Amino acid sequence: MNHDGADGEPEQLLTGGNVTAVSRRGDAVLRASGPWTPSVHAVLVHAREAGLTWVPQPLGIAPDGREVLEFIDGTVPAYPMPEWVWAESVLVSAAKALRAWHDATAGYLPPDAVWRLPSHSPVEVVCHNDFAQYNLVFDVEHGEPRFVGAIDFDTMSPGPRIWDLAYLAYRLVPYLGDADRGQPGSSERSARLRLLLHAYGTEHTQAEMLECMADRLVELAEFTEENAAASGRTDLLDHAALYREDAARIRADASRD
């Protein structure tokens, strides 16, 4: 889908968005803004100044009110995931990138900040809140997949490091109940989770990760149900049901460990 922007640059609707429509115009990405957008942009600027040039640079607000961000060139995987997503190098690079984001945002909060999602205690960092492979950009054209950036920071909010790390583990170890093509099986989960924790550099135990993962999924189910009610998208209810099922299974697994 293409249409011309005010500057004559063709605009293309990007695929992969689950809730918010995202378009590209030249080297910029446009998406709906909200009361949280100034806070999100402030954190992105802070992270870039701290050396994280792989986060998108905020480029302001378009005349139609949408936020404008730098486009990051590369491949963003989507479900069903390509098999290269499950490579150990992807798991390790994603964990290291999340650690770098957390280190860059530790101790920083914009003045009078407004967030789209609730904050969580203890506040240690600004959580991305959806740091998973479908929001990560990779170079897959030059040998082994290489992490080059992250996107979709609009749901960030303050919280503990484990809140983000547990969700990355859910998606990338993974702990999803529905199997994807080439997805590592349950027999590989413990080893892959240990690798993720080591790459990030945390002393949290696997049991702590699983408990946090379950809590994270219950909250995500509630958020998804609210989105379904507001948008009329009944398909989102299937996502919410899956999150609740996975949360119950993961919590049961944690109690057995």
UniProtKB/TrEMBL annotation:
Keyword terms, alphabetized: Transferase
Pfam families membership: APH (PF01636)
Keyword field contains Transferase: yes
Domain Aminoglycoside phosphotransferase, chain residue ranges per copy: 117-172
Residue ranges of the TM segments: none
Domain of life, per lineage: Bacteria
A GO molecular-function descriptor: transferase activity
InterPro entries in UniProt: Aminoglycoside_PTrfase, Kinase-like_dom_sf
SUPFAM superfamilies to which the protein is assigned, alphabetical: Protein kinase-like (PK-like) (SSF56112)
Gene3D superfamilies: 3.90.1200.10
Record protein name field: Aminoglycoside phosphotransferase family protein
